[in-house]
Amino acid sequence: MTAQRHNRKWSRRPFLAAFALALALALSLTSLVRAATTERIVVDQRTGLAIHGFDPVAYFTDANPQVGREELELAFGGVVWRFRNPGNLTAFARDPGVYMPQFGGYDPILLAQGVATPGHPQLWVVADNRLFLFHSESGRDAFVANPFRATAAAQASWPAVERTLVP
Known about the structure:
Blueprint: H1 3-36, H2 58-61, E1 69-76, E2 79-83, H3 86-94, H4 96-99, H5 108-111, E3 120-127, E4 130-134, H6 137-145, H7 147-164
Antiparallel strand pairs: 1-2, 3-4
Helix pairs in contact: 6-7
């Protein structure tokens, strides 16, 4: 092999390695997004935790998302929930339906359009004593403008969308 051919061969390797890395990353992100939308309750695929480990009761008691503690976990609904204190864990255990995010944590605005898109735990609203999570600030703003209409539209779409999600 001539020196010129040898150099040309080596100059392609960084490009091929970068391409392979980008392809692997794109495929893994696609599978994460798909996996995140195949559960009836949104679960962080890296940790297995509901609402990314945030305490669902804290939205009501602290009016602020708070990260739960590893030593205060409870399995419910096929997922693991974390809490920041024993009182919040007890409250959730007594009545999880009150504290769980509505529609399994999917964005109600997008759900009304028939799309199951996971909400983000830091984009939230408590309306009518229920927790709603949103994918974007614009979705949250649209919900706040008319929560009753948004909730009704999401409730109308939820049964059909829920049937597409893996139990």
